[in-house]
Amino acid sequence: MRAEKADAFDALIVGSGISGVLMANRLGQANKKVLILEAGQNLPPDINDYMNRFFMATVKVPESPYPPELFSGGKLTDPASLNAGRPTVLSLEAKGRPGDWQDPKQSYLVQDGPLAFGSSYERVNGGTARHWLGTSLRFLPADFEMKSRYGRFTDWPIKYDDLEPWYCEAEKEIGVAGDAEEQNAHLGITFSSPHPMPRIPISRVDMAVDAAVSGLKVPGIGLDKVQWKVSSTPAARNSQPYQDRRVCAGNTNCIPICPIQAKYDPSVTLAEALRTGNVQVWYRCAAAAVVVDGNGRVSGIDYIQFDGDNGPVIRRGRLTAKIYILAGNAIETPRLLLMSKSERTPNGVANRRDHNGVIGKYLMDHPLYLAWALTPQPVWGYRGPLSTAGIEVCRDGEFRRERAAFRIEIGNEGWNFPIGDPDTTTVDLVNGLNDSQLNKDKKALFGPPLVKELNDRLSRQFRLGFLIEQSPDDSNSVALSTTAKDRLGLPRPRISYNLSDYTKQGLPAAKIAATAIFSAMNADQFTLAPDPDDPSSFPSPNDPTTRLKYFGAGHIVGTHRMGASATDSAVNDMQQSWDHENLFLVGSGTFPTVATANPTLTIAALCLRSADHIVRHILT
Amino acid sequence: MIDFTRRKVLGVAAGTMASAIGTADLTQPAAADDAADLVLFVKLSAALTGIDAAQLAPPIDPIQIKRAYFRQAKTDPGFESLMQIVRANPADPVGAANKIMNSSNQQIKYLGRSIILAWYLGAWYQPMVLAQTPPPSPVTPLKVISPTAYTQAWAWRVAQAHPMGYSELRFGYWSDEPLPIEDFVKARGA
To answer: How many domains, chain B?
Structure first.
């Protein structure tokens, strides 16, 4: 359906991801007229379309179920051929290999390095929270106060207590199953109301780790004082029927897609928003520029509507509303702002040079250190949600003056993430190979011995993932490519990315912790060192002969940061632009620091808080 | 050292998406199927995989995944030679499997391995790729045979689990030990 009169809208929102739909729903519920522009497609009528794409993918990566096609003509799809491209983790390979990270014909992001930015995102109904894990941890009080507590980086303009009621609201809105008492006991954070659902039970893998780490002593800065214990992970995954959705059946597939929608995704909230009758979505509509008038207010958004992933432009136009909310992610939102250059905004929108122009700067992620091992007795991975517990007690302490903190995610999917199992070990045992390192004699098995040996290997696999806090560095940035464009002719994002010494120091600490945990479990470690030309690796700061590898966590953060003053931030604590009072930039791009918790719950809490502010004070 | 992550499996994937075959083509019965050969193929598959024929192809079989694998195997130039060995030993599929897996004829031996991998992973690993020296690292399939093949793959059951994205179990099962392996996989002839 098309709006009869575009300026009848109270709010124009760019992006239908979790930020956009939470804002839209709250505004719609308050009888505000909202239009969402989404560059991607609507959902297919039958979710099995996505499931079948996933089943048929020979490489099962987070992007696999979703359009556009990752491959065309036997190669990665050239992003220049797509109206709304996206990054894929398949284009993070070393130079000269298929998936070359710096080949703009294979990589949507134009990566300047020196290290690779490893996270991807979706441009489709629901955005990247279609393929999210569901982890819904709160930030810790100290995470908002890094400068005042540890002399590092910057403080948020709000504290934990300011956001606490909105965390409660977000947990209800997206449906979080968790154990607030345990979170309080393990992390000291307060909950003014419990999670709306009891926690998801922990797995046999979690139990094995928990049994081993009690009383563990680990040497190293910030590790030696930890009272090691396993915590169940709060997750937006149903432990009871909730929002007319089913209980989790343990499909072990939260990333990239839950087949039964037991995991929250933004289409749940979008459906609710649409039922208000006040919200519309235009799909395959890319925002091309934000227009600012002589009074410094945003006066419109130029859009391009197109037909299909590779089809022609149907229409170009300008839409107006009272307020404008940019809810792309922390790469697409600064991209749009930087594309919006005019005489009035020569540096892009919300990016005044006399305000130090922070748009696109301070790009962060959680560099993820992966370690994997074989337990002496079966722990039976490949069962349950992808992760049901973690180690959270190492997320804060005085050590944050010296090095990055981390949280530890315990995986329930065997060695699927590290080596693509069960495929790799199965092929090894059948074809007499040893890519998995689990077939040292290179035996080629068949018949009953194959069943016995494969069962022995697969049932003892598990992995740990360390989500490492990244420092906010203004040299890590999103800019515009001057050469690479999408099919609409819009410049693609150009990324400069590195890890600071502070951040790098988190990885050897993670490696020490992993080794100690595996040792306490009497588990044999099989973590492999990266190739020297792997663009997501670097020499250990403590031992240059050892290389360390990180993965992207999909947590894209920091490129339109909030702050207490216009001189060092793009938005205030309500995610409202300092430069343009009717413009809001929402999502994890507003985080001044990334901390260690997965960001989605904090994104949701901030958006609900901003929506409430808009309803009460802006669109009155 | 090899950094062998799921992301490195790229080289493969390229061909596969383009050559994906519609599932309906593979699962529909066709007059060309030799019924007797199909029976022998299932017996041979049980001997190769170590999984009972009645589990691979139950007497009442609404899924008929055996046909998909039979037809896929039939496209290989070594298929006729392989089936000759099975036909010559109709009452002794285990003996036939031993001959195939120890055959000096590489075409036959590696087709045997491809058939095992089809049952275990639901994907087609070309015999000529499995036979390469040195082997590619990683070895990657030509394609997933069909969505149904993925959901019927036996490697997951051998792990006492279920295909990722296809669980028929109930909430909370992951907190308990799984049923014994014998409840997931019955040894051939059991």
So the answer is: 1
Indicate whether this complex's ipTM tops 0.90: yes
Residue B1 domain-assigned?
A: no
Q: Which residues of B touch A207 (CB under 8 A)?
A: 175
In A356-430, beta strands by DSSP E: 368-374, 389-391, 406-410
Task: Name B75's Cβ contacts closer than 8 Å, sequence gap at least 6.
Answer: none
Residues of chain A with CATH 3.50.50.60: 6-45+263-364+558-618
**∠ Cα A54 A92 A525 (to 5°):** 80
The model's pLDDT over A552-586, given as tens digits with 9 standing for 90+, comes to 999 999 999 999 999 999 999 999 999 999 999 99
Which CATH topology does A6-45+263-364+558-618 take? Answer: FAD/NAD(P)-binding domain (3.50.50)
Residue range A115-133, pLDDT digits in tens = 999 999 999 999 999 999 9
3-state secondary structure of B161: coil
- Range of the structural domain that residue B143 is part of: 20-184
Chain A nearest CA to B43, separation (Å): 12
E runs forming strands in A550-606? 583-585
Reported confidence tier of residue B33, pLDDT bands at 50, 70, 90: low
Degrees to nearest 5, angle at CA A43 with A41 and A44? 110
User: Could you give the CA distance from residue A86 to residue A68 in angstroms, rounded to a whole number?
Assistant: 8
Block residue for tokens 């046909």: B67
CB of B94 within 8 Å of a chain A CB? The answer is yes
Residue-wise pLDDT for A187-204, tens only, equals 999 999 999 999 999 999
Give the pLDDT confidence of A23-51 residue by residue, as tens digits: 999 999 999 999 999 999 999 989 899 99
Say yes or no to pLDDT of B18 above 90: no
Rounded Cα distance between A393 and A19, Å, is 29
Q: Cβ contact (<8 Å) for B143 and A450?
A: no
What element of type H or E holds A165? helix A160-174
Alpha carbons A240 and A262: distance in angstroms, whole number = 9
Question: Is the pLDDT confidence value at B26 over 50?
Answer: no
Is the residue at B58 inside a domain? yes
CA-CA distance, A123 to A417, in Å (whole number)? 23
- ∠ CA A325-A331-A335, nearest 5°, is 70
Mean pLDDT score of chain B, rounded to an integer?
86
Whether residue A543 has pLDDT greater than 80: yes
Say if residues A304 and A313 touch (Cβ distance below 8 Å).
yes
Task: Supply the mean pLDDT for chain A.
Answer: 96
Q: Which one-letter amino acid corresponds to residue B83?
A: M
List the Cα angle B111/B114/B115 in 5-degree steps: 90
Of A92, A459, A530, the CB nearest to B159: A459
- Between CA A53 and CA A62 the distance in angstroms is 12
What is the mean pLDDT of the segment spanning A390-416? 98
Instruction: Test B161 with A383 for CB contact under 8 angstroms.
Output: yes
Residue B7 inside a domain? The answer is: no
Alpha carbons A20 and A587: distance in angstroms, whole number: 8
* Residue B124 in domain: yes
Q: What is the dihedral of CA A162, A168, A171, A173, to 10 degrees?
A: -100
d(CA A93, nearest CA chain B) in Å: 7
